[in-house]
């Protein structure tokens, strides 16, 4: 075994200890932490069989260099020229070979037999998918004391080996990541394979035969599936992945002790996990982490999430979800530049004096989002090495149990220790105002982002004072960014919304954003209106197609009517509709209140006066007076839905009443009631 | 099988129908503008398309908000087993943020068979909830929060609503928050930061129209022809029912009853009494049953209270009324006693009661809430010297005095 290590390691480590590596060249192949590899299943697996690098054509059984196309169903390879009829180019999209097509139609299929004397060679991919091989993800690589190389692998599994079995929506090349780990000798590695997430997989064309797709994690203990978390923000991290690379390789140069520590930590973790299996820990009491979350996965992956072909409207709705942060903030460029200039100026300053920044604006105008975007950009710059590292603490005022708790949260974020808030205040004071620091970690500048700053106001304002006072101290190295909302009306919502969607008519978006800008200027609301409008349009189309024949395609645009309905729903109080449809006595009651208001000119009236008015109205219109007690109940019902404001019903005739809406609204609602036409006289 | 036996069975069947919201609201849910199908569309689209949503169900009490919601939830639980977690909170029980978050954590733990700790702090629970939302999102599971009496959650700093709605727009989860409230201005109560994060979908529940009531009555009261009940009995029952429903007097009773409150729940309560009044001997419903139900449900508690008063108590009430008519707005027991004496002097009768007897009668009136103290201050003072006021109005008092005794 000719092996050489790439990372320069010293000989003094060859004693008893394991030596960890980032990258190892073993048996001619270069293996790195994070790679995926094929692993032999048994020691005696006929490894002597020559493993074909290239797949053979299913028709002519020659590997050859000619272009081959792969069937999406049986994964067999075919030379373009061997097909009947021959193809000129590799077809776009899914392609299914003639044999599979015939089999689907229910015909008996005779596959071409290999020429005598030649076995159909199976590729590694074939072996893996028929569970004759394993695949694993390398977590760490080390050299044992006896000079043998080992790695810790996280197993992949094929759909057939899960409890749910292969499901109809599984792709042929799909694997699941498991939470099962094992220490494996490097000896048993065959060669690399490439497991990709769905986005990469969709882009992959020519990567060869050893690519697989992995979207889910499979829990071997609970037999459940869960999506891999990093897929969702994969596209964001994709941009600075090469920067990550630099960081990794530079880490190799660091001292060995560092890695020993890592090893110790791992050991501790193992101990912890063992302890947790012995005594089950409560899920919600967080001592560093939550226990038992792995139980949550689904038993089966629901079919609708995999093979759901989205319509244009559904795509628009998905794009409008508030959780989706847009890639760019079209109308906040100026502000973002200012923020990043401020932060950079504060960090890069040699003395690093403390500074404060206060950002304000009405809710939903993108304050927090701009700051977070700036911080993301800065982080990538730190990774690239152009800015000194700093620590970033993010606190939300509304999520604190009490304003004083902020000290505890800050201290925990900085050091990872949990102490009471008084102790934390003391320690933070020491650190920021007296400049006492214990360790080089602490020497970094610290950026403190406080969202909803106005909630930290206490009676003597000590919390706000402390936090805004620290940056003024000479050695604090603290930068505070406070966010709160006050009256400040922004406009220009239009570009931000239309940057997200294309299923809307042009005027419809303009209408929605103008409406919102006129009322509150809240971007969240504008987005919600558009989403609701898309929902309404979708609802109508789906109902139509379920009732009649499928609706004509291409008519799936959100029009003005849908947007208007959404705006109506959001801003219109539903009281007029309720007044129109409420019971007869309630209508008379309301009419009497309006009458009383006109007569006396006073907004407030008592139940006694009102009841007299009602009885007058009833007798003069030949209507039976229902009695005081029933009338009281009617009044309380109206009070419950806040159409009128009233005192508790126990006060009976002393109860005070007042209309909650303008009397014109009541008149408008009741004027043309068919049931009691005479009511209009009193309005 | 005797007719009584059959009638008892029919009675049990109809009563069980009245008590199951599923039966009542199912037939109203077919059409595309019904709240049922709208609500179901919103929730199921957030299951299918993995997005977050928040909805408010508004409408007067008894209009079937929770019933329709439960109907939708039970249908969805059947349609997508294992993927839905329903967290139920009630404003009357959990309006305090700390206890509400604890309850959410508890129910999440229960649903996913995790161990729950009572000791966890507010922070722990809120971070646990966010972690759970993320994990559930990754596992394609939907969490539905139903907040009954939504207006009561909108008190104080609204930390719960803020952390719920904020989590829903930062974490890639699939969660639906359904608020149920009888206050039409429930969304106006939200603090501006919370309101900005709320999706503002509103569904309005209105009382049924006249035609709907007619259909509902027929749907509930008519017996099925293909059940264990004898076929000819059911046919006869339905025939009699049809004649009652068509009767003008019956329509009058119903409209008289629904005049005060036309919600579904109110109607059901009336029908329950009517069904319970059904005579088992004859075995069929009659108009009298409904009449009796109407008179037993439309009570006038204050009026009856006055009628039940003793003569001395009525004396006191009348005296108080006389004082109030004379615009003497602040008076207490002693001044009432003075008035009593003067009344008695001008219209002498054989029975004049001593002051301590009158005080006892006065206390009775206080307990029955026919009179009350004007303010809550002065608890230390004895009853005689605290200011009082009439709770019933003059008209009611006059009505009460018309009883056959006098």
UniProtKB/TrEMBL annotation, chain A:
Region (Disordered): 233-262
Domain of life: Eukaryota
Principal subcellular localisation of the protein: nucleus
Compartment(s) where it occurs, according to its Swiss-Prot or TrEMBL record: Nucleus
PROSITE patterns in alphabetical order: BAH, ZF_PHD_1, ZF_PHD_2
Gene3D superfamilies associated with the record: 2.30.30.490, P-loop containing nucleotide triphosphate hydrolases, Zinc/RING finger domain, C3HC4 (zinc finger)
Keywords: ATP-binding, DNA replication, DNA-binding, Magnesium, Metal-binding, Nucleotide-binding, Nucleus, Zinc, Zinc-finger
Residues in PHD-type domain copies: 54-103
GO biological processes: DNA replication initiation; mitotic DNA replication checkpoint signaling
Pfam families: AAA, AAA_lid_10, BAH, PHD
Residue ranges, compositional bias (Acidic residues): 233-245
Keyword rRNA-binding tagged: no
GO cellular component labels: nuclear origin of replication recognition complex
Assembly description: Component of the origin recognition complex (ORC) composed of at least ORC1, ORC2, ORC3, ORC4, ORC5 and ORC6. ORC is regulated in a cell-cycle and development dependent manner. It is sequentially assembled at the exit from anaphase of mitosis and disassembled as cells enter S phase. Binds unmodified and methylated histone H3.
Similarity-based family: Belongs to the ORC1 family.
Summary of the function given for this chain in its UniProt record: Component of the origin recognition complex (ORC) that binds origins of replication. DNA-binding is ATP-dependent, however specific DNA sequences that define origins of replication have not been identified so far. ORC is required to assemble the pre-replication complex necessary to initiate DNA replication.
Name of the protein: Origin recognition complex subunit 1
Species of provenance: Salix purpurea
From TrEMBL, chain B:
Primary location group: nucleus
Entry's localization field: Nucleus
Domain of life (superkingdom): Eukaryota
MF GO annotations: ATP binding; ATP hydrolysis activity; DNA replication origin binding
Domain annotation ATPase AAA-type core: ranges: 55-201
Keywords tagged on the record: ATP-binding, DNA replication, DNA-binding, Nucleotide-binding, Nucleus
Domain Origin recognition complex subunit 4 C-terminal: 216-400
A single Gene Ontology CC term: nuclear origin of replication recognition complex
GO biological process: DNA replication initiation
Family: Belongs to the ORC4 family.
Protein purpose: Component of the origin recognition complex (ORC) that binds origins of replication. DNA-binding is ATP-dependent. The specific DNA sequences that define origins of replication have not been identified yet. ORC is required to assemble the pre-replication complex necessary to initiate DNA replication.
Protein name: Origin of replication complex subunit 4
Source organism: Salix purpurea (Purple osier willow)
